[in-house]
Amino acid sequence: MGKDVIIACDFASAQDTFNFLDKFTEEKPFVKIGMELYYAEGPSIVKEIKKRGHKIFLDLKLHDIPNTVKKSMAVLSKLDVDMTNLHAAGTIDMMKAALEGLTREDGTRPILIAVTQLTSTSEERMKNELLINASINDTIVKYAQNAKEAGLDGVVCSPLEAGMVKDACSKDFVTVTPGVRFADGEVGDQVRVTTPAKAKEIGSDYIVVGRPITQTDDPVAAYRRCVEEFVD
Known about the structure:
By secondary structure, this protein is α/β, with parallel strands linked by helices. The chain has 11 helices and 8 strands. It is 43% helix and 16% strand. An 8-stranded parallel beta barrel has the order 1-2-3-4-5-6-7-8, surrounded by 6 helices. Strand 7, helix 9 (196-202) and strand 8 form a beta-alpha-beta unit.
């Protein structure tokens, strides 16, 4: 599988998103549409960005009873996105139901990945607030193994855990990793972070990069720097 940089288009409106994407005159970056933009604009934003020639990771992190998730994924499968996700914490049955709902009649479907632990979560918060007493690494590996057992393609994890997920699940199991910052950049609200070059070394297949690209004076140059460090 080829490595790729996914830009997190965490904008509040379609206009802001298109103003940003219009800056890319040579590349058609893989983009992530998250809750903020999808809830603001609905399915039309997905269709419009797809029409412009971008690959899309629809990041809605579904987590509900299996039947609801199955029906929701069936709706999302009609949007022709390239990747979508759910929370691994929803159990193997929920993940299997999601896969079933996402698979179209002709057998095709987007890549389906499961969120292990958000990159804003620390081991201390897991123990004190969620009453999960296993270590964060053991939890992430177990969630990844559950996702594999359910038939999913991979997981969302921090780049720091990509290697251990590959070791536990196989080299072909996809790792999509937010929490990537340039060495000279701000960390923000994420606590498990690393650089594009280090993410490549550890074993990430896709890195998701938001503010270091979207909130800089020259987003195209920042994107190219990511590609240079991670892909080339």
